[in-house]
Fold this sequence. Notes:
The structure holds two protein chains of two kinds.
Chain A: H1 2-33, H2 37-47, H3 50-62, H4 66-77, H5 79-90, H6 96-104, H7 108-115, H8 123-147, H9 153-159, H10 161-177, H11 179-198, H12 205-221, H13 223-231
Helix pairs in contact in A: 1-2, 1-3, 1-8, 1-10, 2-8, 3-4, 5-7, 7-10, 10-11, 11-12
Chain B: H1 5-26, H2 33-40, H3 42-51, H4 63-79, H5 84-101
Amino acid sequence: MTRQVQDAFKAGIPIFIGYVPAAIAFGILSKGCGISLLECFLFSAVVFAGASQFIALNLLMTGMGPGGIILTTLLVNFRHFLMSAYLSTRIGKIAKRYIFMIAFGVTDEVFSVLSFKKGQLSKTFVFILQLSAYSAWVSGTVTGYILGGFLPEILSQSMGVALYALLLAIVLPEIKTSIKALVLTISSGLLNTILIKFDILPNGWTIIVCILIIALAGSFFIATEVQEENCE
Amino acid sequence: MNDLIPLILGMAAVTYGPRLIPFLLMSNREIPKRVDVFLKCIPAAAIGALIIPGVFSATPDMPMAAITGMAFTIIFGLWKGGIIIPVLGSVAVTYLVLLSAA
């Protein structure tokens, strides 16, 4: 039990460190857009979805109405449907009421850490991990809103790299030991680049399409390898 | 600025829904082998698309800065592993590159 808690905090610290700068950037932008501190706080505390919050700010500035912004948010965040589908296979039998809490915290980064953790996921581990992510995101947002004006532009821009580095650092150990993971990661990134270049899909859909196509292709081409791993 | 609370609640609903529904549908259900293999391929595919090509415009004024930062993450991550140093290091490297160009 204590070991589990320890592991969870160890996994939570990097997410905390990755989220704070990104959240600070969101706080700074919100203030720049003229929304109130309470609204800025509620964005992070109630929606809790990094990318779509930034997109919502952009759309607000272009004058788009709430209907359009909510629809875009749905498209952008629909990838979490696939992530939750995967996670539901990794979390053992737990009471329904916990499911409602765990589902709220399925962000890209929490999902990534959970998906590459070996063995079945305990609710203690998931909760502590999500709590580190949530506290970082909300406190960073408020900090950014209040202190944002004092940070140099170059520093806040550099902090935007943190989330990408976090995702990369999570997948690297997997890539190092498995060609399959490397091929999946790179081909998905390439496909996403192509889809964005051709600009045929609405904002946010490219990532969903990439996950679907690449994971489907993966399940056909490397099915045997995965089956062997499962037998271990 | 209009009242943003309805917008925030709407965004929260369409974010929470897709995160919750699969758990409700899939819990305690036997998953076919094919679907299971497909689901196992999701993490790497998701991370690839989340990073590329977004990272190339993470520092819009100078894309090379973010790329150098990520190069640090790759080198240190493959060499020593871990997450904290690769993440903080990439921010520091990106900052230094931007600073030196400013």
